[in-house]
Amino acid sequence: MKTYETNSAVKNDNYTSIRVKKNTKKDVNKFLDRANKTEDCGKITFDALISYFLENVTKDDIEKLQLQSITWAHEDKRLWEKKKGKVSENKWKEMLYLGQSSEFISKHSRLETSYTS
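and the corresponding structure tokens:
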């Protein structure tokens, strides 16, 4: 009777999946393909790439990422809180509806506006 020996290597189950958009995964794979073209050193893995960037991200990098995610919903709340002590809620709403708040928003908003004074 023939017996087959299986080489059961210890599997590392310390990995998990991470959700990214298809284009992001494609871009990372392209990057890793370019980075791993040379055969004179070990392969860079997705895990090593993410770990490297997490260790080397600066406070400015984090702020830049945060600013990329701002919406008008965030800005409305923040700008209202900044202006709240100076005008009543009714006056603030009036300024919004009449377009009088454009200058204030262009000066204090973190989002780009087309208003020029």
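(Above: one complete record from the training split.) The two ends are 91 Å apart (CA to CA).
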